[in-house]
Amino acid sequence: MREIALLRKELRGLAKEKTLLLTVVVQLLIASFSALLVTGIISYTSPEALGEVAGEKVALGVVDADAVLLELLKTEGRLELSSYPGFQEALEAFYAGDVDGILVVSRGEDMVSDPVKIDLYLPSNDIRGTLVAAYLKQPLEDYEEVLRRERLRFLPEQMREVLGYELPVRESGRSAYFEFVYGVLIPLLLLAPAFIAGGLVIDLFTEEVEKKTLQLLLASPAGLLRVLRAKMLAALAVVPIQAVLWMRLLEFNGINIENELLLLLISMSVALMLVISAGIIAIAARRRSRAHLLYSLMLINFFLAGMQLGEVSPLGATAALATGRFHSTTPLVLFLLLSVPLYLLLARLASRASTGATAA
Amino acid sequence: MNLGNLITVSRWELRRSRGRLSAGVVLAVLLLSTSLLLLFLTSLNSPSRVVFYSVGIQGEDSILSGALEYDGRFRVERYPGDAQRLLMEGRLDLLIRISDGVSVLYTPEESSLAALDALAQAISIYKTLTLFAVEAEQVNYAFPLWIQTHYLKREWEFQYFTLPEGSEDAEDTRAGASNGESPAGKIAGGETPPEALPSSEAEKLLNSYRRSWLDMSGITTEEARITLPTLFTPPLPFKSVLLAFIVALPIYLFSQFYSASMLEERNHRRAELLLSSPLSAGDVVAGRMLVYLCLSLTAIAGTAAILRRRLEPEVALILLPVVFLFLSLSLLASVLSRSYRENSFILIFLSVTLFSFLFFPAMFVNVHAVSTISPVSLLVEVFEGGELEFGDYLLVAFPFFAAGSVVFLLATGMFADSVLFPQKPISHRLIYGVWTLWSRLGGGKPALVLLGAAAAVLAYLLELGYIVALFQLPFPLSLQLLLVLAAFSEEALKAGVIAGVLRNPLNRSRVVLIGALCGTGFFLGEKLIAFSALAKLSGSLFWSAILPGERIFGALLLQAALGILAARVLVRSRSFVLTVALTGSLHLLYNLIILGGVP
């Protein structure tokens, strides 16, 4: 009963806090900026997306290109080519706005043993520069292939075998978008509520410390661990609501999410780990600024480490589960198991802290 | 404010924060920061470990297996039973059959098409990786082609939103541009023609690529200017933006400290004592800020030096206006909030907004004019091997310094009030802050004009933020939204100033004068910003949506008239929302007429 009374107190406090709305706005902001980032990434790999706004074709001035390169450039239909006798002439055309980029080929003395260099002149701060570069990528890779084939006989046998390997597939740039949505956007949105929950516990606890109300609570029959537990539960209660909201929103935007129930449980189990860790940090650091510093550093570490650990990390698990390529409760069980020693540590710290406080 | 007092307060704060950091905390912070740097370096250079695609393979193929294994994004199932059904059900993304030739089966699902692209990438990466093992004397046979990219500044054009032909502003920009550097002059001054790449040079380049690809050492981005066709990408500086982000992180940490320190002062009831001492509120607030300003800049320069392996003081210089604005905003957060929770929420909100505002435009360095809005773009350019031009720096830094100062002065004005009446609502505190600021400035007519101009500076920064958020939306919609947001934000800020001045009931009989002066001040502020030659975005429709064009008299009249109206409605109705709704709508209407209707 005491537990429930404490929990009700914390929840009531949270409900009154209008600023909680701000965090929802923050998450919305993250989402909308991520959406913009997606657009940026698409333009990075498949410039068609930009082509729509910037006009389909771009003009490229070419100096000293051989017939093979010209032929390869022509296969890219979105480049309008014009050849110039020298660099100066091409530069004049560039500044006059006749061409949006210049490609100059220079060769060494020896056709076979010296490298070929292509100098690409692009307008800075102009979307057409990006388009030129994007359209050029495939022809230039093909040109490298041609040049390499001429020199292939000088390379060792085993390398020649790998180089000659062909699959009937072409790069399209579609994977970048797919991997961004599932690898970054979804994990970020589903785990952000957990990150915030940890921060909330720190605030709730250090506020009692600094306003000196903690002593009163400790003097009551509640005990430090009980008080902390109520705060942690209150912070946890906000997590699933946000996570479900995000999943619905993503689906509304046409992004398909698999394993929804498991994902919800994962985000709650991660929140559990973080909330307990935040409790430990809060008891150990006492002061809010110190606790927040440690907590933020821990979070960034947690994030970066997650990138290395694959599916057993919260980020990796969320990504893999959301694509549906992976169905396993291992990460969930792992996170829940990890919470146990963390909780025991917290309980120990709490009992030590409260006996210390009563003795003082 | 007094320099001696300032230094005294700074020294206190330093001593206090040293006492606050016990050995354990320092150790924990150091450990966590080190592991953070290490993890960051590793993650930059290692392939993905998240499985996105599942691939079924029927047959044996050592090269394919090698490529898929290295890539790590694939889960491979060998000889799956009833493979075609698995593919149709979406449990496999690709099915690869190896008998006489290789055939790849896929479905029109998004995940299958993405897997197809990833497969092509995996093969191409594997080929490059195999070639990296080449002997020194064979480098030029394995890598016969190198690409070097150069960027040339051409006459400014704002890509999406150039004004329609024949419009007044568009002609102005063109005339202005041709008066400046002539195209002929550029060529004469110009670029040296490109030269061939010596064989030895190619070998050196390849070695640096081998290093940065295979090991985790060295994040230098300049060398990417000469690159291989496989590594050649359109000029979006992802790596440098990421680097800039890590370098800028201390700003967030130290602003949190600053805000907490100010809040603690209040909660521990020490601030009252300080205020009754000969120190002014300005001394107390600025002395503290000085400490965190210096600490942030040192941390920024230090992080950059570690990551880039060289000392670049210009990094700290570029971020100085950002640090200042951020600290001023966290000061505002600490005087506005009544509890720690509130303070955390406000700070998170501020930092996410400001960080998006700073970093999102930087993604578009070399691509889009919007990048010139953010100081981080300059940082990215420096990381990409460019030079910092002082003129550019001033143009980008000015709005940050100006807005930072306004926020700082406003928050300082509220400090005493927040100490004495910590539970008053936020609206009350804001009005009080404006009022204090006005009285500090002398409480007269010039002070009011100055406040109006300050409101214009804040409005300008807000509107830059709107442009960042909106510029990728489809064209007429983005402009329409910007027009609406700009009109209402400007009116809200102006009404805020007027409400602050009207706090004194005696002023309520002089609404016409107060409204007109504030409006004039706002107009002057806008002109000042326009003259500060932030002309890079000029000539775009966005620009004319946030700043008045050539119709100087009309704009002045509008600002004054709306100011008077706002003052009158505020006195009559006492409703801020109603006031802004009314004046904002009228402002919007005027802008629409001036722009000749929305396309």
Which percent range fits the helix content of chain B?
A: 55-70%
* Number of distinct beta strands of chain A: 4
Order of helices and strands of chain A: HHHEHEHEEHHHHHHHHH
Following the backbone from N to C, one meets helices and strands of chain B in this order, namely: HHEHEHEEHHEHHHEHHHHHHHHHHHHHH
How many β-strand stretches of chain B? 6
Tally of domains of chain B: 3
The rounded Rg of chain B comes to 29 Å
Total individual domains of chain A: 2
Query: What are the low-pLDDT stretches of chain A, counting only 5+ consecutive residues below 50?
Result: 48-55
Question: What's the rounded overall pLDDT mean of chain B?
Answer: 77
Strand order of the largest sheet of chain B: 2-1-3-4
Indicate the structural class of chain B: mainly alpha
Q: What is the oligomeric state here?
A: heterodimer
**What is the straight-line distance between the termini of chain B?**
51 Å
| Low-confidence runs of chain B | 156-189, 214-224
Strand percentage of chain B lies at 5-15%
Helix segment tally of chain B: 23
State the shape of chain A: elongated
* Helix/strand class of chain A: alpha/beta
